[in-house]
Amino acid sequence: MPRVPQVDVDVFLQLSPEALRARLPALVAEQVDDALRSESISAELAELTASWSDSDVTSVVDATAAVGVERRLHTAHPLLRQAVRVCCRHLLAGSTVEGVEHLADAVATGPTAVVCNHQSYIDTNAIDTVLCGHARDELANRIVSAAGPKVYEGLLRRLVSASLNTIPVPQSNTLNHTTQLPGRKLARQSLEAVAQSHAAMKEGYVLLIFPEGARTRTGRMRPFLPAVYRYFKLPGIRVVPAALTGTTELIGIGERQVRPGACALRFGPPIDVDEAGGPRGARDAAQLAVSQLLPLELRPDS
User: Fold this and answer.
1) What are the DSSP E strand ranges found in 148-258?
2) What confidence tens digit (pLDDT) does each residue in 258-301 have?
3) What span, in angstroms and rounded, lies between the C-alpha atoms of 229 and 194?
4) Radius of gyration of the chain from Cα atoms?
5) Where are the domains of the chain?
Protein backbone atom coordinates (compact mmCIF):
# COMPACT_ATOMS: atom_id res chain seq x y z
CA MET A 1 0.00 0.00 0.00
CA PRO A 2 1.52 3.38 -0.94
CA ARG A 3 2.32 5.75 1.88
CA VAL A 4 0.28 8.95 1.70
CA PRO A 5 2.25 12.08 2.62
CA GLN A 6 1.04 14.03 5.63
CA VAL A 7 -0.32 17.54 5.10
CA ASP A 8 0.89 20.22 7.45
CA VAL A 9 -1.94 21.46 9.67
CA ASP A 10 -0.74 25.06 9.81
CA VAL A 11 -0.29 25.27 6.02
CA PHE A 12 -3.78 23.92 5.41
CA LEU A 13 -5.37 26.29 7.91
CA GLN A 14 -3.75 29.27 6.19
CA LEU A 15 -5.27 28.47 2.79
CA SER A 16 -7.63 31.03 1.31
CA PRO A 17 -11.30 29.99 1.16
CA GLU A 18 -11.01 29.42 -2.60
CA ALA A 19 -7.87 27.32 -2.22
CA LEU A 20 -9.33 25.28 0.65
CA ARG A 21 -12.50 24.50 -1.31
CA ALA A 22 -10.33 23.31 -4.18
CA ARG A 23 -7.88 21.30 -2.04
CA LEU A 24 -10.09 19.54 0.47
CA PRO A 25 -11.83 17.03 -1.87
CA ALA A 26 -8.53 15.80 -3.34
CA LEU A 27 -6.88 15.73 0.08
CA VAL A 28 -9.53 13.38 1.41
CA ALA A 29 -9.75 11.27 -1.75
CA GLU A 30 -5.98 10.67 -1.66
CA GLN A 31 -6.48 8.67 1.53
CA VAL A 32 -8.68 6.06 -0.17
CA ASP A 33 -7.08 2.90 -1.53
CA ASP A 34 -9.63 2.37 -4.29
CA ALA A 35 -9.57 4.42 -7.49
CA LEU A 36 -13.30 4.34 -8.23
CA ARG A 37 -14.36 5.14 -4.66
CA SER A 38 -11.71 7.85 -4.46
CA GLU A 39 -13.04 9.48 -7.63
CA SER A 40 -16.64 9.32 -6.39
CA ILE A 41 -15.73 10.82 -3.03
CA SER A 42 -13.72 13.60 -4.64
CA ALA A 43 -16.56 14.51 -7.01
CA GLU A 44 -19.21 14.56 -4.29
CA LEU A 45 -17.02 16.57 -1.92
CA ALA A 46 -16.16 19.04 -4.68
CA GLU A 47 -19.87 19.68 -5.23
CA LEU A 48 -20.42 20.05 -1.49
CA THR A 49 -17.51 22.39 -0.77
CA ALA A 50 -18.38 24.53 -3.80
CA SER A 51 -21.59 25.43 -1.96
CA TRP A 52 -19.68 26.71 1.09
CA SER A 53 -19.48 30.47 1.48
CA ASP A 54 -16.28 32.15 2.63
CA SER A 55 -17.74 32.43 6.13
CA ASP A 56 -18.54 28.71 6.03
CA VAL A 57 -14.92 27.95 5.19
CA THR A 58 -13.74 30.21 8.01
CA SER A 59 -15.94 28.33 10.46
CA VAL A 60 -14.54 25.00 9.20
CA VAL A 61 -10.98 26.27 9.68
CA ASP A 62 -11.78 27.56 13.16
CA ALA A 63 -13.36 24.26 14.20
CA THR A 64 -10.40 22.25 12.85
CA ALA A 65 -7.93 24.48 14.68
CA ALA A 66 -9.82 24.36 17.98
CA VAL A 67 -10.89 20.73 18.26
CA GLY A 68 -9.25 18.91 21.15
CA VAL A 69 -7.18 21.92 22.25
CA GLU A 70 -9.33 22.60 25.30
CA ARG A 71 -10.38 19.80 27.62
CA ARG A 72 -14.14 20.19 27.15
CA LEU A 73 -17.03 18.90 25.09
CA HIS A 74 -16.42 19.67 21.41
CA THR A 75 -19.62 19.47 19.37
CA ALA A 76 -19.62 18.40 15.73
CA HIS A 77 -19.25 21.09 13.11
CA PRO A 78 -22.30 20.59 10.84
CA LEU A 79 -20.47 21.12 7.53
CA LEU A 80 -17.62 18.80 8.46
CA ARG A 81 -20.10 16.25 9.75
CA GLN A 82 -21.84 16.33 6.38
CA ALA A 83 -18.55 16.05 4.48
CA VAL A 84 -17.19 13.16 6.54
CA ARG A 85 -20.48 11.30 6.31
CA VAL A 86 -20.28 11.62 2.50
CA CYS A 87 -16.88 9.90 2.60
CA CYS A 88 -17.87 7.21 5.07
CA ARG A 89 -21.04 6.38 3.17
CA HIS A 90 -18.82 5.38 0.23
CA LEU A 91 -16.18 3.67 2.36
CA LEU A 92 -18.59 1.64 4.50
CA ALA A 93 -21.25 0.70 1.96
CA GLY A 94 -23.06 -2.50 2.88
CA SER A 95 -22.42 -2.24 6.62
CA THR A 96 -25.02 -3.75 8.95
CA VAL A 97 -26.45 -3.16 12.43
CA GLU A 98 -28.28 -5.45 14.84
CA GLY A 99 -30.01 -4.68 18.12
CA VAL A 100 -30.26 -0.92 17.64
CA GLU A 101 -33.55 -1.09 19.54
CA HIS A 102 -31.51 -1.75 22.69
CA LEU A 103 -29.73 1.57 22.27
CA ALA A 104 -32.98 3.40 21.50
CA ASP A 105 -34.66 1.91 24.59
CA ALA A 106 -31.79 2.94 26.86
CA VAL A 107 -31.74 6.49 25.49
CA ALA A 108 -35.49 6.80 26.02
CA THR A 109 -35.04 5.80 29.66
CA GLY A 110 -32.29 8.22 30.68
CA PRO A 111 -28.48 8.69 30.78
CA THR A 112 -26.78 6.19 28.49
CA ALA A 113 -23.22 5.04 27.81
CA VAL A 114 -22.20 2.71 24.99
CA VAL A 115 -19.15 0.51 25.53
CA CYS A 116 -17.56 -1.01 22.43
CA ASN A 117 -14.48 -3.00 21.46
CA HIS A 118 -11.81 -0.98 19.64
CA GLN A 119 -10.32 -2.15 16.35
CA SER A 120 -9.39 0.93 14.32
CA TYR A 121 -9.19 4.73 14.17
CA ILE A 122 -12.31 4.65 12.03
CA ASP A 123 -14.45 2.94 14.70
CA THR A 124 -16.33 6.04 15.89
CA ASN A 125 -17.07 7.10 12.31
CA ALA A 126 -18.15 3.56 11.50
CA ILE A 127 -20.71 3.61 14.31
CA ASP A 128 -21.95 7.02 13.15
CA THR A 129 -22.17 5.85 9.54
CA VAL A 130 -23.97 2.61 10.31
CA LEU A 131 -26.57 4.36 12.45
CA CYS A 132 -27.18 7.02 9.79
CA GLY A 133 -27.29 4.39 7.06
CA HIS A 134 -30.15 2.67 8.87
CA ALA A 135 -32.21 5.83 9.45
CA ARG A 136 -31.00 6.35 13.01
CA ASP A 137 -29.59 9.83 12.55
CA GLU A 138 -31.19 11.02 15.79
CA LEU A 139 -29.13 8.46 17.72
CA ALA A 140 -25.94 9.11 15.74
CA ASN A 141 -26.19 12.85 16.39
CA ARG A 142 -26.38 12.26 20.15
CA ILE A 143 -23.20 10.22 20.43
CA VAL A 144 -20.20 11.88 22.05
CA SER A 145 -16.95 9.93 21.96
CA ALA A 146 -14.42 9.85 24.79
CA ALA A 147 -11.37 10.52 22.61
CA GLY A 148 -7.71 9.95 23.41
CA PRO A 149 -4.99 12.42 22.39
CA LYS A 150 -4.04 10.59 19.17
CA VAL A 151 -7.50 11.29 17.77
CA TYR A 152 -6.56 14.97 17.47
CA GLU A 153 -3.10 14.47 15.91
CA GLY A 154 -2.50 15.61 12.33
CA LEU A 155 -4.74 17.38 9.86
CA LEU A 156 -6.95 14.52 8.70
CA ARG A 157 -7.65 13.26 12.21
CA ARG A 158 -8.49 16.80 13.28
CA LEU A 159 -10.91 17.23 10.38
CA VAL A 160 -12.58 13.95 11.25
CA SER A 161 -12.66 14.71 14.98
CA ALA A 162 -14.27 18.09 14.30
CA SER A 163 -17.06 16.24 12.48
CA LEU A 164 -17.95 14.36 15.68
CA ASN A 165 -18.96 15.17 19.24
CA THR A 166 -15.89 14.42 21.37
CA ILE A 167 -14.56 14.86 24.89
CA PRO A 168 -10.75 14.67 25.22
CA VAL A 169 -9.58 12.02 27.68
CA PRO A 170 -6.00 11.21 28.73
CA GLN A 171 -4.37 7.95 27.68
CA SER A 172 -3.82 5.50 30.50
CA ASN A 173 -0.23 5.06 31.74
CA THR A 174 -0.84 1.30 31.75
CA LEU A 175 -0.48 1.34 27.96
CA ASN A 176 3.24 1.09 27.19
CA HIS A 177 3.00 2.59 23.68
CA THR A 178 1.55 5.91 24.88
CA THR A 179 3.11 9.07 26.33
CA GLN A 180 3.31 8.72 30.09
CA LEU A 181 1.79 11.57 32.11
CA PRO A 182 2.79 12.51 35.67
CA GLY A 183 0.44 10.77 38.08
CA ARG A 184 -1.26 13.89 39.42
CA LYS A 185 -1.81 15.35 35.95
CA LEU A 186 -3.26 12.06 34.70
CA ALA A 187 -5.59 11.84 37.70
CA ARG A 188 -6.77 15.43 37.29
CA GLN A 189 -7.44 15.08 33.57
CA SER A 190 -9.21 11.75 34.10
CA LEU A 191 -11.55 13.23 36.72
CA GLU A 192 -12.24 16.22 34.45
CA ALA A 193 -13.14 13.90 31.58
CA VAL A 194 -15.48 11.87 33.78
CA ALA A 195 -17.21 15.02 35.06
CA GLN A 196 -17.60 16.38 31.52
CA SER A 197 -18.96 13.04 30.35
CA HIS A 198 -21.54 12.97 33.14
CA ALA A 199 -22.59 16.52 32.25
CA ALA A 200 -22.95 15.57 28.59
CA MET A 201 -25.10 12.55 29.40
CA LYS A 202 -27.34 14.71 31.59
CA GLU A 203 -27.83 16.96 28.54
CA GLY A 204 -29.00 13.99 26.47
CA TYR A 205 -25.77 12.95 24.78
CA VAL A 206 -24.89 9.24 24.56
CA LEU A 207 -21.36 8.61 25.78
CA LEU A 208 -19.31 6.27 23.58
CA ILE A 209 -16.38 4.60 25.36
CA PHE A 210 -13.76 2.19 24.08
CA PRO A 211 -12.88 0.69 27.49
CA GLU A 212 -9.81 -1.21 26.26
CA GLY A 213 -8.09 2.20 26.13
CA ALA A 214 -6.43 1.55 22.75
CA ARG A 215 -6.95 -0.34 19.51
CA THR A 216 -6.34 -4.05 19.63
CA ARG A 217 -2.98 -5.14 18.22
CA THR A 218 -4.02 -8.78 17.78
CA GLY A 219 -7.63 -8.51 16.60
CA ARG A 220 -8.86 -9.93 19.89
CA MET A 221 -10.61 -7.74 22.43
CA ARG A 222 -8.40 -6.56 25.29
CA PRO A 223 -9.43 -6.36 28.97
CA PHE A 224 -11.25 -3.20 30.02
CA LEU A 225 -9.24 -0.62 31.91
CA PRO A 226 -10.08 -0.79 35.65
CA ALA A 227 -10.96 2.90 36.02
CA VAL A 228 -13.67 2.77 33.34
CA TYR A 229 -16.23 2.16 36.10
CA ARG A 230 -16.01 5.85 37.05
CA TYR A 231 -17.99 6.79 33.96
CA PHE A 232 -20.86 4.67 35.31
CA LYS A 233 -21.21 6.58 38.61
CA LEU A 234 -24.03 8.74 37.27
CA PRO A 235 -27.42 8.04 38.89
CA GLY A 236 -29.84 6.28 36.59
CA ILE A 237 -27.27 5.46 33.91
CA ARG A 238 -27.60 2.38 31.73
CA VAL A 239 -24.72 0.82 29.82
CA VAL A 240 -25.28 -0.59 26.34
CA PRO A 241 -22.70 -3.15 25.12
CA ALA A 242 -21.69 -2.98 21.46
CA ALA A 243 -19.44 -5.06 19.23
CA LEU A 244 -17.90 -3.75 16.02
CA THR A 245 -16.21 -5.98 13.46
CA GLY A 246 -14.61 -5.38 10.07
CA THR A 247 -12.91 -2.05 10.67
CA THR A 248 -9.40 -3.52 10.91
CA GLU A 249 -9.80 -4.48 7.26
CA LEU A 250 -10.45 -0.83 6.42
CA ILE A 251 -7.43 0.62 8.18
CA GLY A 252 -5.03 -1.32 10.34
CA ILE A 253 -2.20 -0.43 12.70
CA GLY A 254 0.38 1.79 10.97
CA GLU A 255 -1.67 2.26 7.81
CA ARG A 256 -2.68 5.64 6.39
CA GLN A 257 -4.93 4.80 3.46
CA VAL A 258 -8.42 3.39 3.92
CA ARG A 259 -9.72 0.40 1.99
CA PRO A 260 -13.48 0.44 1.40
CA GLY A 261 -15.34 -2.39 3.09
CA ALA A 262 -18.35 -3.30 5.18
CA CYS A 263 -18.44 -3.52 8.95
CA ALA A 264 -20.98 -5.05 11.32
CA LEU A 265 -22.28 -3.38 14.50
CA ARG A 266 -24.20 -5.30 17.17
CA PHE A 267 -25.83 -3.86 20.29
CA GLY A 268 -26.81 -5.94 23.30
CA PRO A 269 -29.47 -5.34 25.97
CA PRO A 270 -28.77 -2.40 28.32
CA ILE A 271 -27.12 -3.09 31.65
CA ASP A 272 -28.73 -1.42 34.67
CA VAL A 273 -25.83 -0.26 36.84
CA ASP A 274 -27.68 -0.75 40.13
CA GLU A 275 -28.84 -4.21 39.16
CA ALA A 276 -25.26 -5.10 38.17
CA GLY A 277 -24.05 -4.32 41.69
CA GLY A 278 -22.82 -0.78 41.08
CA PRO A 279 -20.32 0.82 38.69
CA ARG A 280 -17.61 -1.83 39.08
CA GLY A 281 -20.11 -4.62 38.59
CA ALA A 282 -21.45 -2.85 35.51
CA ARG A 283 -17.94 -2.61 34.06
CA ASP A 284 -17.43 -6.36 34.51
CA ALA A 285 -20.88 -7.16 33.12
CA ALA A 286 -20.27 -4.89 30.12
CA GLN A 287 -16.91 -6.53 29.38
CA LEU A 288 -18.55 -9.94 29.34
CA ALA A 289 -21.48 -8.71 27.25
CA VAL A 290 -19.26 -7.10 24.61
CA SER A 291 -17.10 -10.21 24.32
CA GLN A 292 -20.20 -12.39 23.84
CA LEU A 293 -21.39 -10.15 21.00
CA LEU A 294 -18.11 -10.76 19.14
CA PRO A 295 -17.30 -13.82 17.03
CA LEU A 296 -15.20 -16.41 18.85
CA GLU A 297 -11.97 -15.50 17.07
CA LEU A 298 -12.17 -11.89 18.32
CA ARG A 299 -13.04 -12.62 21.92
CA PRO A 300 -10.38 -12.14 24.63
CA ASP A 301 -7.84 -14.89 25.16
CA SER A 302 -9.02 -17.06 28.02
Assistant:
1) 165-168, 206-209, 238-245
2) 999 999 999 999 999 999 999 999 999 999 999 999 999 999 98
3) 10
4) 19
5) 9-87, 93-298
